[in-house]
Hints:
alpha/beta; binds uracil; 40% helix; binds iron/sulfur cluster; single chain; Uracil-DNA Glycosylase, subunit E; 210 residues
Amino acid sequence: MGAEEFLPHSRSLSDLRQAAESCRGCDLYRDAHQTVFGEGSQHASILLVGEQPGDQEDRRGEPFVGPAGRILDQALRDADIDRTQTYVTNAVKHFKFVERGKRRIHKKPGRTEVVACRPWLLAEIEAVDPRVVVLLGATAAQSLLGPQFRITKSRGEPLHLEDGRSAVATTHPSAILRAGDDDREAAFAELVADLRVVAELLDEPRRVHG
Ligand code: URA
Ligand code: SF4
């Protein structure tokens, strides 16, 4: 189990992406249409990590192109972050779902799948070498900061990954879609506020990490 043995020797993004197409590091490749690898600027200063592709992402092969992606785009715009200057990926690269009639309903990936898929995420972070990693929701945050991490406790705070790189955790855009009408606006504003913290971190002098 685990993606490690599927990683190529070359750690360029294009080689990683190609190798990930045939990953069988956990069982999720069996039912999904395709691996959804990260996308965006190869030298992005901001790398955003979601949970896993959704139904539309699985069909199109691109991350955050469905309803959650539209919320993310809007929040990035409101925080004055240009999505084309970012790299966007997920903690888990295959869509996990249960079938209800014709619909495929998102199923949260388990710890085993998150850990199995982490080598791809770590390799993407190394290849892109961003200034700040944005952890969208608990799955992404717990992949890189451990299962004890709580978004509610530490969101919007400057954090550090194991390699010393700056990170900020915030709510997942899907949580805003799920929020009730009374809470949605406030939840969205909090996401934007956390993304502004990310933008501010870019103004700080670069730390040497390693
Ligand atoms: N939710 C995610 O976490 N990632 C996507 O790519 C789409 C929805
Ligand atoms: Fe490999 Fe990740 Fe897909 Fe599992 S979810 S098969 S580890 S790419």
